[in-house]
Amino acid sequence: MPATHTNADTIIALLATADALLTEGPDADGPLTPAGRARGAAYALRIALEAAVDATLTAEAAGLGTISMRAKLLCLRHYAGPALAHRVNALWNRLSEGCKYHHDEIGPRHAQVHAWRAAVGSLVAELVVAGVVVAFPRQAGT
Question: Is residue 97 part of a domain?
Answer without folding.
Answer: yes
